[in-house]
Amino acid sequence: MAHSLQFSISTPSTPFRTISKRIAFAPKGYIHIPKHRVKLSVRSEVASPASSVSVSNTAALHTTPFPVLPSFAEPSRETEAEPKVNGLRGTQRTKLVCTIGPATCGLDELEEMAAGGMSVARINMCHGEREWHRSVIERVRRINQEKVPYDTSIVFQDADMWTFSVRSFNSILPKHTVRVNYDGFAEDVKVGDEIVVDGGMARFEVIEKIGPDVKCRCTDPGLLLPGANLTFWRDGRLVQERNAMLPTLSSKDWLDIDFGIAEGVDFFAVSFVKSAEVINNLRSYIAARSCDSNIAVIAKIETVESLKNLEEIVQASDGVMVARGDLGAQIPLEQVPSVQEKIVMLCRQLHKPVIVASQLLESMIQYPIPTRAEVADVSEAVRQQADALMLSGESAMGQYPHKALSVLTSISIRMEQWWREGTHHQRMTFPDINFSPYSINEELCNAAAKMANKLGADALLVYTTTGHMASLLSRCRPTCPIFAFTPSMSVMRRMNLHWGLIPFCLNVSDDVESNLNSSISLLKARGLIKSGDTVVFISDTLQTIQVINVP
Ligand SMILES: Nc1ncnc2c1ncn2[C@@H]1O[C@H](COP(=O)(O)OP(=O)(O)OP(=O)(O)O)[C@@H](O)[C@H]1O
Ligand SMILES: CC(=O)C(=O)O
Ligand SMILES: [K+]
Ligand SMILES: [Mg+2]
Question: What ipTM is given for this predicted complex?
């Protein structure tokens, strides 16, 4: 069983420019550690034309194994060695990204997550140490062993006075103190400002400023989770950040990026993207630094600016994440669902994979079953045919990471089936993508997908050198599974994020007939197709569509 690694780095911010910042945590034990999360009623912001960007220190690196699913059939002699390269595959269309944290970083847990349908493992570089990140990556690759303690959270009680401080406390934090890792905090904030934790988890009023310490009174009790995002509001408006023009990548981010390149991750996810520029910079950096690897760059959409520049950002990126956590702190909460749908549709049109992230099954951090509302939310993302769903705290530090993953799996399978069986949907029509070198392939894929649907084909097979032809097929969201063959391991791993693609690494020879025969016997050996099935075959070198009756 091969575990290939995929990864993304979600990068953040630079100091100074920012309003919203991650809060660093006091050593454990000193802070009141709650047994239960406080239930909060989140009220959305009185609509303010919040034009400012919130930046965070979050860096998220993401890593991934292929789903390692139980074998369905004995491999035939000629394909005996093949499962070692390709792992074992299921045919679920919606891909599942899991944030790895203390709850899931162990060998057994990772293995269980992979078996449970995880398509991509994500590591957030703002949590944990470099060695931990490396060890998770290694474990994802080779599955080995180590555990990390659970994170803690703080409860704020109504009217409590807290000190928010940028001082670096060497060992123990004084009582009722929160460390803020944004140096400009004490300067930027004003007495009377409202400080909002994570879009409404808790609220404070700024009472007094004493040097680097800011005294605040809790006005809306709630919870402070590690790495929480702070925004501050003045007269009902999000405070404009000081310098919106600084690059989105800090020097720590660049070090994390070097680390990701050295470790051979498959994706970087960049936090708080404002425009296409940062994506373009990162892409040229990757191209210059790693001649053979081709790490995909995912833009996290979580700021007001990123919504304004959405189309250019999507165009510049290899994929997009709807980062609903921070997004919900930047725009009124009731706008998040329609913005999500808009981003998902745009990505589909522009032919980029899209991940729907944050709070999908938030209550499962604590409870073994999801709320009905969460099930409805996940179902909606699957119905929108987003490429992937992502777990955050649920898999990183929740009490039921495996159950959360299996809930995602069963909702996806159910909704995908509903979609295929019903006439519930209108097929989306796309404008042409209009990249002229690809227009023939684009038409071929549209035609092949349509043909497969009309014929009720059992599978689409695609030979793809760069993955492009396969993602064009995925974009059509055909009814049958898409088996994608490529000679490149890294192309194979990146295809793992695309809706419906079941990627395989296969050495392709010049002889088309023999390539096709070996793919068919590989799929038959795995029980993914059988004699009598109809398969539609396309290839980026041949530019023809063939319909084959499986012998
Ligand atoms: N490596 C880790 N070590 C400890 N805790 C972690 C780790 N990774 C994630 N977590 C926990 O899981 C939670 C969710 O992680 P995640 O990275 O999705 O969210 P985040 O910190 O809000 O950042 P972002 O907005 O970039 O997603 C974190 O707040 C943290 O408590
Ligand atoms: C995933 C992420 O960064 C967010 O939801 O804010
Ligand atoms: K999050
Ligand atoms: Mg975020």
Answer: 0.94
